[in-house]
Design brief:
This protein is 26% helix and 35% strand. It has helices at residues 3-10, 16-36, and strands at residues 56-66, 76-85, 90-100, 105-112. It has a four-stranded antiparallel β-sheet, with helices on one face. It is elongated.
Amino acid sequence: MSKETIESLVFQNKTKDQLIEDTLTSLSALLADIFTGNDVNELKSEFPEKIQIEDIGVELHHVAIYMENKEFETPCIEVAINMVFEKQEYELGTYALIFDEKGEQVDEILNLE
């Protein structure tokens, strides 16, 4: 089965690009809260000392389709974005959103290195 065929079947409610954009928007809001807001999740201490929001770059890690998963009852799509400390060129961690088959967010994951 071709990539285009799979995408046309899976991404009916939201396109792959829309899910990537949703994930980038969510990550931007999280980083803004951490570095310029209230840091309600108390995550700033998990980042390198003296790092600023402008120092963090992003790159798409993967878009994965899970037909079966122990954590979710229905098939889901994971969009993962790597965060990179651009000044020192090393990966800070990965941020991911999990979407159900309708394109609705069902989980959020932040793994910091």
